[in-house]
Design a protein that fits this description.
The protein contains 27 helices and 4 strands. The chain is mainly α and about 725 residues long. A hairpin with a 5-residue loop joins β2 and β3. α26 packs across α27.
């Protein structure tokens, strides 16, 4: 059987019997460590997700504490699931399969354990810093610069270990799973480094090197491809290894796997702009993102079909083996998510779906179904082999499968209903031409039942994961762990490829050339989309009236970022009549040239805030942050009482102004050495006077003063027409 069609664990090539056999040992200890971490962090990430799901209909769960609000816990949840649960699951699957595909122990035991402990330290650092509000606010890249550097160091160690193992392999040709592992290692490094470029303003604060529209494009070039090359390609490699092994069937089509790999890594990298349709991003970039997103259907479904058709003739085994049940649902969820993603990238569909819970449903089809179920599948397959025993309870694994599947349905179906409801209600006009639902809170309350059902689904999913942990623990107790698994393979006889081999088989024997071509394939799309944004000025036209934030507004913006307000509020009015009627003039690219980072948001649990400046008196904002329910009955926004009492830290202001000047914000030289503090105090005094006029007393050195100054600045740099409907005078709806 060709190494390209079935992952073999024993040598099987012509002349193998005449080649001296070498005895070596696979390192199972590192695999077990990542497996245990996967299960543990999975429970943590799922639990954090359940908490924030419940906060949507039970605001008291925010606890009126700075560390437990939705805005701070939400990035903790996403990082725990993506980088802790899926990240450890990815390393677990790669460290086991790569050794067997290469017929070699990992290149360096030290690098393996450095990878493990370094990754766990990064996760713990994220778990500490994110609830403290130490965040960049950039989705899936919220961690501050010292942790970003640590991520890069650990990832380089992993990549060296990966490539070193491939270099010393005893199997001449690289199996398809290794192709995906290589693409993952190098593409994630490129994405992480370029998206994380920032100017530090202290140990726990930095400003993105990019601004506004450029920052948005780079962020979603990263964000979309983090999904592609962290959540997808390594798991596709695992699918190509574990599915044929479990089913004892060769991969359906070797040629289809070649097309799947090269088409996927080339096309995926272009699709990021589909997250920014109808925004201030130039139309040409939006169109490129949409076109390549639609093209993604072909390679994605090619991979799905290659996986499912591998099971031809093995459906009786699928019915009996819970591991294969999980795998089938995982591959099916991958197919559904990769069909829905391109569909949502079509502009007419995106006009309805964006900023709604529809996107949440889409993301969780992939996270719960593709990543979650495939990780569960691999865990069930690995533990009996690591401990040289049988799975403790097949029945319990089947219970896990059905409970988790039911939980996933209870999650995504209500979110689809909620998302479509939101999109339609936002756009609905009455027969007189006015917005049917001008008060945003009315729409929020309409979908509360769907959020309750979502929480039920999340609870069921956690119950299934707990059953898995019990089953795996019992399996481990019933067996004996094989830390060093002995193996034999023919000694390497040279890497030269016979002359008769050509095409892709020839390339599979040359990992350096293969890697170079893969890097070129992933760089093309990014360069074509991002470089023109810097070289062609008309892509980001300037507006003369747009000025840098004042010192007080700057600190207020940093507080807005710290509290995670961008997780619920967008700052991007799209050019739809429904949005300009509700919020005001649509957003222009030139308004964001001093925004480091951009804060356009990706979900509206509450209304857009880009034109909120000047709509309400300062006293309204003060009271709204103190008691949202008192201003909007039924609000699900948590109160922020600490903002009213916490002293504004101005000692960090000089460093922040200097950092922003280095990014290109035109603060005068020396402005931070005196004039900035005076301007801050003068503006704070004006806010205090405005509050007093509204019968509110406050000290000028409180955080709420800076936040109010920032909110009142939003959208006021250009003259915008006031909203023409009752929405203009309606209270801003509260949200989490």
């Amino acid at each position: 059987m060709s190494s390209a069609s079935l992952p073999q664990e024993q040598a099987n090539r012509p002349g193998a019997a005449r080649v001296p056999m070498e005895v070596f040992h696979y390192d199972n200890a590192i695999v077990r460590a990542f497996a245990i971490a996967t299960a543990f962090w999975g429970l943590v990430g799922f639990s954090a997700g359940l908490l924030i799901a419940c906060q949507f209909f039970w605001p008291a769960l925010n606890l009126e504490l700075p560390f437990t609000t939705f805005g701070r816990i939400r990035p903790l949840h996403t990082n725990a699931v993506i980088f802790a649960f899926v990240g450890n699951g990815m390393f677990m699957g790669i460290y086991y399969s790569l050794q067997r595909l290469c017929k070699a122990r990992m290149f360096s035991d030290f690098l393996s354990w450095f990878n493990f402990w370094g990754w766990q330290a990064i996760i713990v650092a994220a778990a500490i810093t994110l609830p403290l509000g130490l965040t960049t606010s950039k989705e899936y890249a919220e961690l501050e610069w010292p942790i970003d550097i640590a991520i890069a160091v650990v990832w380089v160690a992993f990549t060296i270990n990966l490539m070193g193992t491939i270099a010393k392999r005893r199997e001449k040709h690289m199996y398809v799973a290794i192709w995906f592992y290589i693409a993952t290692a190098f593409t994630v490094a490129v994405l992480h480094i370029f998206n994380s470029l920032a100017i530090p303003a202290g140990w726990f604060k930095s400003y993105s090197l990019y601004a506004g529209v450029q920052d948005a494009l780079v962020q979603w070039w990263y964000g979309h491809n983090a999904v592609a090359f962290f959540l997808t390609t390594p798991y596709l490699g695992m699918m190509y290894y574990y599915l044929p092994k479990a089913a004892n069937r060769p991969v359906f089509s070797y040629r289809l796997s070649i097309i799947h790999f090269w088409a996927l890594i080339f096309i995926y990298i272009w699709a990021g702009p589909h997250h920014l349709l109808y925004t201030a991003l130039p139309d040409w970039a939006q169109s490129l993102g949409m076109v390549f997103s639609v093209m993604l259907v072909a390679p994605s479904w090619g991979g799905m079909l290659n996986g499912l058709l591998t099971l031809r003739g093995a459906w009786d085994k699928v019915r009996q083996d819970p591991m294969l049940k999980f795998m089938v649902v995982a591959v099916t969820a991958y197919g559904m998510a990769t069909l829905e993603g391109p569909t949502l990238a079509i502009k007419s569909v995106n006009a309805l779906s964006h900023y709604t819970d529809w996107t949440i449903a889409h993301v969780h089809t992939g996270a719960l179904g593709w990543n979650g179920f495939l990780t569960f599948s691999v865990l069930y397959w690995l533990f009996p082999r690591l401990y040289n025993t049988r799975l403790w309870s097949v029945k319990l694994a089947n219970y896990h499968f059905w409970i988790a599947l039911l939980g996933m349905m209870f999650y995504v179906v209500p979110m689809y209903v909620s998302g479509v409801t939101q999109g339609l209600m936002w756009k609905q006009f009455n027969q007189d031409g006015f917005l049917q639902y001008p008060n945003f809170l009315e729409i929020v309350m309409q979908i509360i039942p769907m959020h309750r059902l979502r929480a039920v689904g999340g609870f069921l999913y956690i119950i299934g994961a707990v059953l898995m942990v019990i089953n795996l623990f019992k399996t481990a107790k019933s067996g004996r762990f094989l830390a060093e698994q002995e193996a034999q393979a023919p000694a390497p006889v040279g890497r030269e490829t016979p002359a008769r081999e050509h095409g892709h088989r020839w390339l599979e024997a040359r990992p350096l050339l293969f890697t170079t071509l893969a890097i070129v394939a992933i760089l093309v799309g990014g360069l074509v989309e991002i470089v023109p944004m810097y070289l062609i000025p008309k892509n980001v036209p300037t507006i003369s009236s747009v000025k840098p934030y004042t010192p007080l507004e700057l600190l207020g913006r940093d507080i807005y970022i710290r509290e995670g307000c961008v997780g619920c509020h967008s700052q991007m009015v799209r050019p739809f009549r429904s949005e300009t009627e509700r919020y005001g003039e649509y957003s222009k690219a030139g308004e964001f040239i001093y925004d480091h980072p951009f804060l356009w948001g990706s979900k509206r649990s509450g209304p857009d805030l880009h034109r909120v400046g000047g709509k309400y008196p300062d006293a309204w904002h003060y009271g709204h942050m103190e008691d949202p329910q008192g201003f909007s009955s039924g609000s699900i926004m948590p109160p922020y009482p600490w903002l009213l009492t916490r002293k504004l830290e101005t000692n960090q202001l000089p460093a922040r102004i200097r950092a922003l000047r280095r990014t290109g914000v035109p603060y005068p030289e020396g402005y931070e050495n005196g004039p900035a503090q005076k301007d801050l105090e003068a503006q704070a005094a004006q806010v205090v006077a405005n509050l007093k006029a509204g019968s509110v007393e406050s000290e000028p050195d409180r955080e709420i003063i800076a936040l109010i100054a920032y909110l009142q600045r939003l959208g006021t740099d250009i003259k915008a027409e006031p909203a023409a409907t009752p929405a203009a005078s309606a209270p801003v709806a509260s949200n989490p």
